[in-house]
Every structure is written in C-alpha cells, then in structure tokens.
Amino acid sequence: MANVHSHPQHATAHSQEPVHAPADTQRLKCVPEPFVLRERIAAAAEPSAAALGKARPPTRRELEVSARNLLDELRLPDAYLGWAMVAVASAFWHDQVAALPYDRRLLLLPRCLRDERRCPAECDELGLLCRDCGACGLSGLRSEARRRGYRVLIAEGSPAVTKLVLAGKADAVLGVACLDSLEKMFEKLVRSGIPAMAVPLLCDGCRSTSADEAAVRRLIEVPYRPGRRHTGSYLHLIRCAAQLFEPEPLRRLAPPMRAGHRAADASGQDVEQLDPIACTEALAYDFLVAGGKHSRPFITLAVFDALSGGQATGADGAGHTAAIPDHVKAVALATEAFHKASLVHDDVEDDDAFRYGAATLHRRFGTATAINVGDYLVGLGYRLVAAQRDRLPADVVADLVAQFASAHTRLCEGQGAELMWRDARDKALKPLDALRIYALKTAPAFEAALLAGARLAGPVDAVREPIARYARHLGVAYQIVNDLIDWAPDDDNKLDQATDLLAGRPTVLWALAMERLDDAGRRELEATVQANGQPAIAVERAAALYRGADAFGRAHALVEKHHARAIEAAGQLPDPPLRRLLHFLADAIVDRRPLGSYLQLPD
Q1: How far apart are CA 410 and CA 442, in angstroms?
Q2: How far apart are CA 287 and CA 259, in angstroms?
Q3: Which of 272, 284, 309, 535 matches a 20 to 30 Å C-alpha distance to 195?
C-alpha cells in the first residue's frame, strides 16, 4: 500500500531517538520512532486523558501540561510534545466519538498520501475526487470508512471541514495530517467542543508522506457505542449563529425592503442590472453573508442560553437552539450587521485591498458607494432591534439600542484616535495610549454582544460591570494577538507581512519599541513607514528594532496579562454557565500560542 506503512514495526525496537521532520518544523514536533514507541505514547495517553475533567473541552495549556507529564513518566524528550498532545486529545474524545453513529463522523485524509505521478483524480472545493483506482493507500482507507457510513474528505486545510461541520453534516472529525496542520485545525475544533481524533503523519511536507496503516484503521474502527455524551459543547450554538445567514432564516429575520434582488446579485455582474434603488440593499446583504466567523452573533446567542439554563450545550443541544426565539436571533443578527458596517468603513479608511479573500467593496464599487453600504448596515442593525418592539418590553428594546449606540460611538472614538495618529507627523506613542485605542476599537463590540444576550435573558445590573471589564481585557488581548499575527503572511486573505507597520497604523508593538529605543533607534523606526517602494527593507529593519527592544516578547506578556484579567472578571459572575462560557470565549478568541508560532520574521 503506497505511502501507508502496513508493517510499521520495520524500525529498530530499541531506538528512541527522535526522527526529525524538515528543518523548518518546530523542535517540539518530532515523530517518535519506532512503531512500538508510538504505541507506548498512545497507551499512556489514555490515563492522562482520563485525569482531565469531562465537563468542558480541555484547553491547549491543559493538553500541553498533560502531554509533558506523560513524556516525563515515559522518560522521553520534549521533542515529542506535539505528538503526545495529539494522543491525549484523541484519547479524551474517544468515548464521545464512539457515542456518535458512523454517519455523523467525518474522516479527513490528506491528499499528500496519494502517488501524484499516477493519480488521475481531479479536485473540487471540497478536496480530491478519488476514483478508487487503487494506486495509493487512500483508496482502501476511504472505501473502509465509507463502508461503515463515514463522510470522507481528501483535502488539506480546515475550510472544507468547517463548512461541513457548520452545515450539520458531521458531529465529529477524525483526521490524518501532519502535526502542523493538526495544530492549526484540530485545536479550533477542540476549543469549540467538537470531538476530534487524529493520527499524525510520519513525515511533514506535501509530497511522499506516509502514515501508520494500523493507527489509521484503528481510528476508523472506533466502535459505535450509543451512550451519554460527557462533555458540553458549543457546537450547536456555533451552528445556530452560522445558520442565521442562510437564505431562509435571513429572509425571515431581516426581510429585504426592496423586492427583486437576490443575496448573490452584488457578488456577480448583475448588480448593474438592478433597480438603482435596490443596489445598496443588495450590496449590503451580500457583504453581510460574505464571510467571517460570526463570533458576535454566537456570543449573544450563547450568553442568552447560559442565562436561560445552558441547555443548548447539552446532548440535546440541537433541539434547544431550534427553540431559541426569533427575537433573540434577530438581535444576534444585528450584532453582525454593526460589525460588518465597521469593517466596510475600516477598509475605506485604511484603503485595504482585500476582505474575506476578495476585493474590498470600495475597490470594487468606489469609496462613496462603500461608505453608503456601511451606513446602510448600521441602519439595518438598528432596524432589527427596533423591529422586536412587539415581542419585547419597551425598556428592553431601549436598553439594547442604548448599548449598541454606546458601542458604536466608542468604536468611532478609537478609530478616530488611530487615524489622527496615523496622519500626524509625531509618531511617538506610549503603550498605555495604544492599549486605550484598543480598548475603544475592539472591546465595545464584544461588550455589546455579551450584554445584549444578557439583557434578552433578564436584568443585567448584577453582571454589567464584570462583563464590561471582561470585554475590555478580552478586546485588548485580542487586538495585541492581531498585532503579532500581522507579522505572519496570510495567504488565505491575501495579506502581506507587517501590514499595520507599512500602513502607518498605531500598534502596541510600535509603542513598546519606541519606549525602549534610544533617539537614533526611534528615528530609524520612524523612517520605516516612509520607505516608499521598499516594503521588504522596511519590514526587515523594523523587525530588528522590535527584537532589540523586546517588543514581541513584551507584547506576548501583555496578552497573558489581559487574558488573566478577563478570566478574573469572569470569575465574579454569579451564574456558573455564564462563567464557563466566558472562560471558553477567552480561550477561543485570544489565540495564546507560544510567541514563536505567531512570527515569521526576516533573518
């Protein structure tokens, strides 16, 4: 069987030296050799996973601690940490995967297991269209899984997986991939409470990879044993938020005011053929459903559920999310309308070229039209809230409008401060000033989504202050993480490296560097934003200055600090389901990876 080790015991049974992946792979992602060593780690992962509480999904930190303890017990080097973390996570979710019928499981296989020289298959948006020609090991694994009822994808990356899970096609993901891919994709699934098990490939890269056939078949053969699921999951609420933007729910909750247009009109060439009066609405609705994570609608729905009994995270979560009233869903939809409006205006002010992997609205239709579409989305958000006046008491509607208005004005203040600094000659910026801008730009949207869900469930006097404090620290931590991620290219969204620096936008990295650099260093850093036509040189110079001032390390420490303060604020809330939700959000929204995994810096 090509590229799949059907006899993995071929390696020497006495060697425990790590087999290193390619040089660009992080040192903690080595593959254990021989086969018997991988089996030892898998066996030790079962008691390690059993020691983790089943009430909620484990955090990355908890998995890392458990995996390190496992390696210590086996007297193995930390080079195997990535492998051990996958083993512990898979063992944690084993029973919940077993509780799901085979037809509710998705098997993800990597295309790199095929023999490219002989493979006749083509690809579509969901991956490889395998012809079962038998030229590689994929055919046999796919056939075995499909015989049991699995949905099978042969693809790399998470978009196709996310699409199928959010569409309700699968409730668990079982995957075979390299450790880098597993880190990127499976961590997101696990954080959301989606059961996920995996077998890492035996070598990285996109060609000539291999996997243990025995381990993959054991993954596929996890038996179906109906039973009670132990771990709470936000999957159904995440799906509920995503489904708000499907055609039928969108028409029901936010019926278009102008007849004769489809939501997809504005994305094609038909927009010029529309009634001019209907064009703005068509463009706005198209952008509303165009992309994004739908984090804010999810927050509103999840807070409402947490304060209404928290039943949507249980085994019958799908039934409870279906029962969430339409007036709650409409307000959740409004949070996304406000968010999308801010993105349209942000793109204009920053002259960004791409959003969601496509050209921005102002690049496609002009600045004036884009501003007008953003204004329409603001109006749509308030229209959605006001439309609930027949379903909600007047004081609740008034409180919701006041909360969204407050968030809107504070966001504008933060954006205005950023624009003033960007266009000023004096580029001095203190870290505290940068954090104040972050608190205004990002935190109000989180706060509004949280308090909207709480107000829909009842009075908010007891939770308003800790929620506001939580949102402030969460928003700051989230924005700092974005600063760090900005130093890694984003091919999916067509973003280059260090875009904030090159656009002259204020960041905490800049402020931290300016605080530590001497006069000559400050002048050199200021010169980087004036390096017209030489962005690579500007990025290289700024990276060196940032490293010299330890700006990256200090920014990462600020992420940890504000994440901890958000958790502290959440701890003051009286309702356990709400506290659990805010802990989950803090881990899901703030990507607390090790510093080195954020950055791809010039040498």
Answers
A1: 9
A2: 18
A3: 309
* Tally of CB atoms within 10 A around 478: 22
Read off the DSSP letter of residue 19. B
Residue 26 CB burial class (10 angstroms; 0-12, 13-18, ≥19):
middle
Chain centroid to CA 437: how far?
Answer: 23
User: Rounded to 5 degrees, what angle do the CA atoms 363, 359, 256 make?
Assistant: 90
Average pLDDT over residues 492-518: 82
Give CA 164 to chain center in angstroms.
16
- Tokens standing for 340? 């999308």
Among candidates 88, 57, 317, which has minimal Cα distance to 189?
57
Token pair of 73 as six digits:
């017990």
The candidate with the shortest Cα–Cα distance to 264, out of 287, 290, 286, 249, is 286
pTM given for the model:
0.83
Residue 600 — left, alpha, or beta (φ > 0 → left; ψ -120 to 50 → alpha)? beta
Phi, psi of 352 (to 5 degrees): -70, 145
153 beta partners: 108
- pLDDT reading at 565 higher than 70: yes
Q: pLDDT tens digits for 347-358?
A: 999 898 999 889
Please answer whether residues 405 and 451 qualify as being in contact, where contact means their C-beta atoms are separated by less than 8 angstroms: no
Q: CA nearest 213: which of 70, 453, 6, 444?
A: 6
Could you tell me if 429 and 514 are in contact, meaning their C-beta atoms sit under 8 angstroms apart? yes
Contact 555, 515 (CB under 8 A): no
Q: Please identify which residue in the block is written with the tokens 């208005």.
A: 405
Q: What is the DSSP letter of 501?
A: H
Report the Cα 226 to chain-centroid distance in Å: 31
The CA distances from residue 66 to 85, 88, 257, 360, in Å, are 8, 7, 55, 44
What is the rounded CA–CA span in Å between residue 125 and residue 145? 21
